[in-house]
Amino acid sequence: MLHLVMSSPFASRSLEQCLAHRTAGDPVVLLQDGVIAACTQTWLSRLQGVPLYVLQEDLQARGLSALEGQSISMGGLVDLIAEHGSPLSWGE
Fold first, then answer.
1. pLDDT tens digit string along 61-91?
2. 5-57 pLDDT, tens digit each
3. 3-5 and 52-55 as β-strands: parallel, antiparallel, unpaired?
C-alpha cells in the first residue's frame, strides 16, 4: 500500500503513526509539510530502509533540500498511485 504523509513531523504524529502501521516494503510519499521530515537529521535514522519519495514541488516551495528519499514530481506521484492503487493518507 502507498502511504501519503502531509503533515510536518514536528506538528503532528502522522509520520510516526504511518511508520508504525505500514507493512515492510510499503512506500511512503512525503508531501506538503511532510517533506520537512526528509530534510532533518532528527528523522533520518527513522526513515532509513523505507521506500521513500519526496514531492519536489513541495520541497521547492519551502526552500528545502531532501537528505533522504527520492525526489519526485507530481507526475511521479500519479505514477506511484497508478502502480500501487488508492493510497492511505496521513495528515491532520
1. 999 999 999 999 999 999 999 999 999 999 7
2. 999 999 999 999 999 999 999 999 999 999 999 999 989 889 999 999 999 99
3. unpaired
Return the C-alpha torsion angle 1, 11, 77, 2, nearest 10: 0
CA dist 65 and 68 (Å) reads 9
Total residues found in the chain within this entry = 92
Q: Please give the Cα distance from 33 to 66 (Å, whole number).
A: 13
Contacting residues for 48 by C-beta, under 8 A, at least 6 apart: 68
Query: Against a cut of 0.90, is the pTM above it?
Result: yes
Q: Helix, strand, or coil here: 90? A: strand
Cell numbers representing residue 5 in the block:
504523509
Helix (H, G, I), strand (E, B) or coil at 77: helix
Cβ atoms 61, 34 nearer than 8 A:
no
What 8-state DSSP symbol labels residue 22?
Answer: S
